[in-house]
Amino acid sequence: MEHEGKRKRRSREDLLKAGLNILARHGEGALTIESLCKRLNVTKGSFYHHFGSKDDFRRHLLDYWAREHTWRFIEFCDREDSAEERYRNLDAVSQETDDDVEVAVRTWAQRDPQAREYQERIDRMRIEYLEKLYSEMLGGSERASVFALLEYAAFVGSRQIMPGLDKARIRELLGLWTEMLKPYLKEGRDETA
């Protein structure tokens, strides 16, 4: 059993996970070396073993967020052959995202050019992925980009509403969206048949 006060060796990923947690719970202003070290009970030397500076940490934190909240999901979904199955998987994994992290990164991006650059890149990547799925499901329809943008705007907006929507309500809205799309999805299949 670990003694209280005894310092435990922490990995780079431990620091990044803790950083996302601080960001989500307290905002970008709380992302200090001191708060991170205190949360994990590590020394500043431990921090500097993994990161050259606070700015270096923040850049790696944005990379980590992009990987864990976008790239990992896309890689998981792309294991499936059909666009419909990839879309269902994307729906399932998007429900696993920490909405507080999404909101905190977007808030950070309003004030910080580096965070904004990451947010814009991730938004483009997510919209392009949705557009690719819709294009496959709709048989290459020009509507794919419109549907992708509408769905992504709903994803972002549902996390910005105050007070926030709970996961059940978001699932309900997504279910309604899927029902509304069915005629277009059938039409797309008919055109390619």
Measured distance between first and last alpha carbons: 64 Å
Tally of helical segments: 9
List the secondary-structure elements in sequence, H or E.
HHHHHHHHH
Instruction: Give the uncertain stretches in residue-range form.
Output: none
Mean pLDDT: 89
Question: How would you sum up this structure, described in words?
Answer:
This protein is mainly alpha-helical and 193 residues long. The chain has a domain at 63-192. It is 77% helix and 0% strand. The longest helix has 26 residues, at 167-192. This is TetR family transcriptional regulator. One of its GO terms (molecular function) is DNA binding. Keywords: DNA-binding.
The gist of it:
Keywords: DNA-binding. Residues 32-51 bind DNA. The chain is mostly helical and 193 residues long.
List keywords for this structure.
single chain, 193 residues, mainly alpha, 9 helices, elongated
Furnish the topology, listing elements before pairings.
Elements: H1 12-26, H2 33-40, H3 44-50, H4 54-77, H5 83-94, H6 99-111, H7 113-137, H8 143-160, H9 167-192
